[in-house]
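The authors assume throughout that readers already know how a fold can be written as discrete tokens. For illustration, here is how one protein appears when written out as sequence plus structure tokens.
>
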Amino acid sequence: FGSITSVTINRDSTRLLAGGSRGSISLWNLNNYEMLRMIDDLTDLYSSILSVHYLSNGNFVVLNDTSGSIFIMDVRQKHSKLQCVFSGSRGEALVLKPLTYDEIPRDQPQFNGIEQICLLAMATVSKMIVISLRPSVVVHFTTTLQSTHLEYLPLIAWNLSFRYGNEYMPLLTFGRQNQIFIHRMVTDFVEKITFIPLYQFTTTNYMLQHLSWLEDDKLFVIDTDESGHLIDVIVQEEMEKIDLTHVELVYENAHFKSLVNGGYVSQAM
């Protein structure tokens, strides 16, 4: 199994999935701490699991590995197999960010049923892509995501609770190196989803390492010097800078390089 590289817990906190550096996945019952399954379906002997996530419908999980491929699996079925939905031969998937159930506002009719299509934002070496995985794979958005330095990973964050005045404006945020892009998600109905450019930032004094929403209108960025930056998106200004070096952040470089398996990864990884 190797070391644990990623964990995900289902909506009611009864199941935990753990991905390992040697490509295995274990499913655990959190009520009695019993291991229910060990999954060794990955065909690449030298792959490490990079991330594993429960999807918004609560029945499927999605994962990616160091081959750059993406797989989904129905965890309700005892003998279900991993199904490849994106092959690394088409451009390695570096980062996955599914829209989770808890990120969907329950009081907005425009999002009714959206948890059933399992939206997934993903970044490859050169592209940003949004797809839905259920009942079949549908591509909703794609754009280029260039970087002059490939050592900087793409970053992705969802925010469906953003308000501008009295209007809800669900957002998809992504970036790489020193560029941050914010797109508005428009849902005419569940099957038709589009993304419209809204804001773009360039950080002149630092490179991006982490990206997340702290509040509905506040973006939190960690740079490569381990400083945190709180950004007000509406006025497009940095509100505060925080030194995080004392936190002792943990990095995933060894997993992306698949060092435990001899480093058999592409140059993109």
Notes: The chain has one domain: 4-261. The radius of gyration is 19 Å. The CA atoms of residues 52 and 212 lie 18 Å apart. The mean pLDDT is 87.
